[in-house]
Write a structure and sequence with these properties.
The complex is a heterodimer of chains A (about 300) and B (about 475). With about 300 residues, chain A is mostly helical. Chain A has ten helices and two strands. By secondary structure, chain B is of the alpha+beta class. Classes of the chains: A mainly alpha (about 300), B alpha+beta (about 475).
């Protein structure tokens, strides 16, 4: 194509010089505002490359003079957030756990902080909302507690866990494997199951249940109590109510007596800070089953095993 | 008549450089009316935020306040919450239909008198006259070299522009916060950054749109003139040059020399000189005409001086123009204004207004929203009962603290309590204290016997215990374990 640049008559603009079947293209200059914006962005980009990480190298990119990193930016955000929360956190730290409910604003903040921590540390077993998992992990929303449902008991359970063999202060107890270890034979276990189902109102009294009662008093009452009311000092569940962690039907009860689960919960005091443990306690307390009475909190001596409240 | 829109000519350039408009001072009825409208609209705009209105200790005392931070809109005794924003939508619809009404009756009266662009352009043109002098002096100065006089006059003029623009932007933010407090904070540097930003943006736009772009906004930027052409009909009032009376144009001397050969227009160009958008009305209706009617004043003045009847340029409908052209007499103005179309618009406008006022009078100021907690859906209690948890959102829209009762119905053996209560003392009813003008969230525990359907609807209701007993209720589900679980 020949170079035939010429001035277009109608517009007074130069053509680019190419021609296709009589069609020519105008060489309209860029609008000045566009050009200046373009130049300005080049200048800006030069500054950006110097100041910020920009140029890809073999292993990483150039660092930039400002030393900016997205990780650093996140850290700063998190620090700012922590600083923003600091007053309320220190207020919670300075208030005794049992005094929190009397201070609705602080209690609310603690419950919310606890809810956030719960979603990180606890939902894996206890489920979102603390509903638990049937036959595996206890519900934290009901009014039935193995180790106590007042604030101090809940905090102790979170801090020290349940059945942590490497931790002296942990809540612990062991239900014998009556079936597996041959303490009771199958017929005896069936009788005990009948008795437990009678005292929990699921079956009518029977001869088997009467035989089971004798066995119960000999083998079970030491922890579960003569009437099956349970004992929170050793985490022995109440057997007369409608809440069954591992199931209240015949098969489940038999399985439990043959080989109990003796559920384990990790302790958290050495993993998360005391204020978070405190906030978790208020959150669990607020789920609906929290017990107002906190008996004998002041005196830890001689409470159950290992001085637990 | 020439093309009503001379921008679409075959050889028209895509962009036409602005020709300066230097409207001449004019006196007359329409000018006085424009002064009055300008005074009223500016007074409303600048003054409204400073009107006080006592609402008691729990609400601001500013009569008109758009409280974005707290999501409330106050207008005298009406307080609107965000969920009632349809009232604002209703107001906007009324404003739209109002514009239809005005346009179909009197054409572009909005453009000519009340539009902020018109009002501020008018204001800035008065500033031009104050600093630079009238039309001829302005033109001389604009075309003259940059002498010391021109520099100083321009400096003074732009400073006045900036001052007006700044007050315009400054007045705007007063609608969004307590005006006296905000004024103090603004000048002591303690106002929110958004306040300074808003003032800066509005100062800039007022300065540019009112000081420099003026009629270009109406001709090139504003969609409303284009929409209006669809709203007008042959019975809408337009500023009309009665060319059947004016043409052919000729001076008074010529007319005296040749009686009967010339029309009433003496081609004195006063109608062009006073036009704030710089058009020639004698070319017929056109997009640049905002129907401010200043040319009517100018022409009437000239006609008076030379002893000819007024109204060579006048408000006239297209229908009347045809009638008058044929030698007849147009309809009286009231007949033009009151016709089915305008009356229908007016009725719709009134109906919407009445409906809104009615529903404003009927609305309850206590609102309940219930959310069923899903996780867990139900809780097995140790005595065999089942507990469901609900989150209540209680909206107290009155500006006073209230006590309300929350009750459950249609759920046999139910007991309710909140986090402050306990199941031991629970009944079918709880009392809750609500803070004024706020939403209170309450976790409500509802326990009922375990025997019953797996899913059951029941009612949670709330009502006021102090004064106004009206309340709200919600039907919500109660869940139990499926049989066999």
């Amino acid at each position: 194509m020949a170079d035939k640049k010429r001035i277009d008559e109608a517009t007074g603009t130069s053509t680019v010089g190419h021609e296709w079947d009589g069609i020519e293209e105008l060489d309209t200059p860029m609008p000045r505002w566009w050009l200046w914006t373009f130049y300005a962005s080049i200048v800006w980009a030069a500054g950006y490359v110097v100041l910020y990480p920009a140029w890809p190298m073999l292993n990483s990119a150039t660092q930039g003079m400002l030393g900016w990193t997205s990780r650093g930016a996140l850290d700063r955000e998190m620090e700012a957030q922590a600083a923003r929360r600091a007053p309320i956190i220190s207020a919670i730290a300075a208030t005794a756990l049992t005094d929190l409910p009397a201070n609705p604003e602080l209690m609310q903040a603690a419950v919310q902080g606890g809810a956030a921590a719960f979603r990180v540390h606890c939902v894996q077993c206890h489920g979102a909302g603390g509903a638990g998992v049937k036959k595996l992990y206890p519900s934290l929303t009901d009014d039935d507690w193995l180790w106590g449902g007042d604030l101090a008991s809940i905090e102790y359970t979170i801090a020290h866990g349940i059945r942590n063999p490497d931790h002296k202060a942990t809540r612990t107890s062991q239900m014998p494997a009556f079936g597996r270890d041959g303490i009771l034979d199958a017929a005896q276990i069936a009788d005990v199951v009948s008795h437990v189902r009678v005292i929990s109102g699921q079956e009518k009294p029977s001869a088997a249940a009467a035989r089971g009662n004798t066995l119960f008093q000999a083998n079970c009452a030491v922890c579960h109590g003569a009437t099956g009311a349970g004992d929170r000092a050793v985490g022995a569940p109440k057997l007369t109510d409608a809440v069954w962690l591992y199931g209240g039907d015949r098969d489940s009860l038999t399985a439990t007596i043959v080989q109990p689960r003796n559920g384990v919960m990790p302790r958290w005091a050495h993993r998360i800070d005391p204020v978070t443990v405190k906030m978790l306690a208020t959150y669990v307390y607020s789920l609906g089953g929290g017990e107002k009475a906190a008996p004998q909190v002041a005196n830890n001596e001689g409470q159950g095993a290992n001085g637990q409240p | 008549m020439a093309s009503p829109d001379d921008l679409t000519g075959e050889n028209a350039p895509l962009y036409a450089a602005r020709k300066g408009v230097y409207p001449k001072k004019v006196y007359g009825a329409f000018r006085r009316f424009k002064w009055a409208v300008m005074g009223i609209t500016l007074a409303i705009y600048y003054g409204t935020p400073w009107i006080r209105w006592d609402r008691g200790p729990y609400a601001p005392d500013q009569a008109v306040l758009v409280d974005l931070a707290n999501r409330r809109f106050y207008m005298f005794q009406i307080e609107i919450w965000p969920h009632e924003f349809y009232y604002v939508a209703g107001l906007l619809i009324m404003a739209g239909i109002g514009l239809f009404l005005v346009t179909s009756a009197v054409g572009r009266a909005w453009c000519g008198y009340a539009c902020p662009q018109t009002v501020w352009t008018d204001l800035f043109q008065h500033v031009d006259r104050l600093v630079d002098g009238d039309r001829n002096a302005q033109m001389r100065l604009a075309n003259g070299p940059w002498t010391l006089e021109k520099v100083s006059k321009r400096t003074v003029k732009y400073l006045i522009y900036l001052t007006i623009a700044f007050w315009t932007g400054g007045a705007w933010i007063m609608y969004f916060a307590d005006a006296p407090t905000l004024t103090v904070n603004f000048w002591t540097g303690q106002a929110a950054p958004i306040a300074y930003g808003t003032v800066a943006v509005l100062t800039a736009t007022t300065f540019v749109l009112g000081g420099f772009m003026r009629e270009q906004v109406c001709i090139y930027m504003c969609p409303w003139p284009r929409i209006q052409t669809a709203m007008m009909d042959e019975k809408s009032l337009l500023v009309t040059y009665k060319e059947w009376r004016g043409e052919p144009r000729g001076s008074v001397k010529k007319a005296q020399a040749h009686p009967g050969a010339f029309g009433d227009c003496i081609d004195c160009n006063q109608c062009v000189a006073v036009c704030p958008t710089g058009i020639d009305i004698r070319e017929g209706p056109q997009i640049g005409c905002i129907t401010c009617a200043l040319c009517i004043d100018a022409c009437d003045d000239v006609m008076g001086q030379i002893g000819r009847p007024r109204g060579l340029i006048d408000y006239c409908t297209l229908d009347d123009a045809a009638v008058e052209k044929a030698g007849g007499i147009g309809k009286p103005v009231m007949k033009t204004l009151l016709r089915p179309r305008t009356l229908i618009y007016f009725c719709i406008w009134c109906a919407i207004g009445a409906a809104m006022l009615f529903s404003l009078g009927q609305r309850t100021r206590l609102d309940l929203a219930v959310q069923h907690e899903r996780s867990p859906l139900y809780v097995q209690l140790s005595d065999g009962h089942i507990r469901n948890n609900y989150t209540l959102k209680l909206r107290n829209m009155e500006t006073r603290p209230r006590r309300v009762a929350v009750t459950v119905d249609a759920l046999a053996g139910a007991a309710v309590w909140t986090e402050n209560g306990s199941r031991e003392t629970a009944t079918r009813r709880v009392e809750i204290a609500l803070a004024p003008d706020s939403v209170t969230r309450v976790k409500l525990f509802v326990a009922a016997p375990g025997e019953g359907p797996a899913r059951q609807d029941f009612t949670i209701a709330t009502r006021g215990l102090d004064g106004d007993p009206r309340g709200d209720s919600d039907i919500i589900q109660f869940d139990r374990p499926e049989a066999g679980q």
